[in-house]
Amino acid sequence: PYPNFGKTLSGTFQWSEPTSYHSNVNEQCPVDYLMLGWKSQHRNDVEDRSFEILCGKMDGVRTRNCKETDFVNEYDRPMDYNADRKNSYVITGMYSEYSSIHRDRRFKFTVCQVYQENCT
Known about the structure:
7 strands; mainly beta; 0% helix; globular; 53% strand
């Protein structure tokens, strides 16, 4: 799903620490890293999820023009989001807001354009 410029992912990967339940979440990859995945753990007793994101660095690839999306879903509605790959945007982080009224979350994402390091 990511523009690969004929590059491979380096051995530099890192999972974030699990987030707290019932709190807003702001998980961002380091500069020039891409968000490669995420996982969550649901607990029925608190009716919420804890999240971790996986960040990785692609050899010779940098990020620029980073921005945060608007919320991509509403409470109690499905969430489905894809970065604008046509313009080389990838996801590099996520923000999630918890509502105790809805017992649900809505999400924003940080997206950045990727480019080859040796290109101007």
